[in-house]
Amino acid sequence: MNSQFSAPYLKTLSLSPENQESPIHFLKHWKTPQDYFYLRNHFSYPLINPQNLFLSISGNVNKRVEISLSELSRFPSKTILVPLECAGNNRAKFKPKVFGEQWEEGAVSQGKWKGVPLKELLDQAGLLDGSKEAVFAGMDFGERKDLNESFYFARSLPIEKALHEDTIVAYEYNGKPIPYKHGYPFRLIVPQWYAMSSVKWLMNIFIIRHEFNGPFQTKDYVYYPFKDSDLDKKPVTAINVNSTIQEPLNYSIIQEGLQTIRGIAWTGTGTINEVAISIDHGDTWRKATLKYRENEKFSWVKWHFDWEAYKGEHTILVRASDSEGNMQPIKPYWNRKGYGYNAVQKIKIQVE
């Protein structure tokens, strides 16, 4: 970090399981240091036996495959810079309020993940006809009190998404082995989908011929648009286009004169192609300057806007749009579990 004397810390939402926000407003690097990467857990951290670090692939395949950590590192690899965002990021902003971890803006972080395309591993096992989904089970295990039953954390992907060239089984983060709290030894990385899909402590991959119905697939991580009905429910998948103002901070006092407003923007569809700022409650919008990370198609975009600040209280709005025509809405898509918040972000400041 810039200062040798001080550093930001994670913001704790719960201790058991451990859920902590990244200090997103203070992170100016493309790669989030592991100490500042947000933590999202459903259960206690798993116990890992160093003598038994294998990933198994079974189910609707020609042959069951077991791959050790050392074997995985000998496969052709790729490295991708990708933001991971919790589907509940910004949940605290929904009105009316919804139940769940009250994340603000820090349940998103970005790093460089190195791993093997999942397709390479599935080719080793040999997919059989009729393969519909790949189910990914982590080592984290615990009781769901709402169901009075214990489960491993498990999620599925449509087979087409599992076979995408950029869906990888990662074993390194920012050039080092994946930290224990972020999924060591194996973590699935699914670019542009909310991070519940990027299963940590990956242990088993099952290929199935039907739709997976585990509770983290069909009960959680589902958009329910009505408070008392499951009508029109749909699964949470791709990240909604979103942005954050990192500087200045909300409700801060700044000086009159030239000020730079800064932040980041990201999307789960295409690429960010515009970020716009409004100082007049959305009546007019002015384009910010974008900075892309070269040769990284999934990376967030850094943006800045130079503003001649004048005295008084101001509300600053930011909205991002992407190459697929998606734009942050003025009002969020309310859903009763509080997923996918991506309304126009705003801060209030005072200029002296």
TrEMBL record:
<feature type="domain" description="Oxidoreductase molybdopterin-binding">
    <location>
        <begin position="42"/>
        <end position="214"/>
    </location>
</feature>
<dbReference type="InterPro" id="IPR014756">
    <property type="entry name" value="Ig_E-set"/>
</dbReference>
<keyword id="KW-0500">Molybdenum</keyword>
<dbReference type="Pfam" id="PF00174">
    <property type="entry name" value="Oxidored_molyb"/>
</dbReference>
<dbReference type="InterPro" id="IPR005066">
    <property type="entry name" value="MoCF_OxRdtse_dimer"/>
</dbReference>
<keyword id="KW-0560">Oxidoreductase</keyword>
<protein>
    <submittedName>
        <fullName>Molybdenum-dependent oxidoreductase-like protein</fullName>
    </submittedName>
</protein>
<dbReference type="Pfam" id="PF03404">
    <property type="entry name" value="Mo-co_dimer"/>
</dbReference>
<dbReference type="GO" id="GO:0006790">
    <property type="term" value="P:sulfur compound metabolic process"/>
</dbReference>
<dbReference type="GO" id="GO:0043546">
    <property type="term" value="F:molybdopterin cofactor binding"/>
</dbReference>
<dbReference type="InterPro" id="IPR000572">
    <property type="entry name" value="OxRdtase_Mopterin-bd_dom"/>
</dbReference>
<dbReference type="GO" id="GO:0020037">
    <property type="term" value="F:heme binding"/>
</dbReference>
<dbReference type="InterPro" id="IPR008335">
    <property type="entry name" value="Mopterin_OxRdtase_euk"/>
</dbReference>
<dbReference type="InterPro" id="IPR036374">
    <property type="entry name" value="OxRdtase_Mopterin-bd_sf"/>
</dbReference>
<keyword id="KW-0479">Metal-binding</keyword>
<dbReference type="GO" id="GO:0030151">
    <property type="term" value="F:molybdenum ion binding"/>
</dbReference>
<feature type="domain" description="Moybdenum cofactor oxidoreductase dimerisation">
    <location>
        <begin position="235"/>
        <end position="351"/>
    </location>
</feature>
<dbReference type="GO" id="GO:0008482">
    <property type="term" value="F:sulfite oxidase activity"/>
</dbReference>
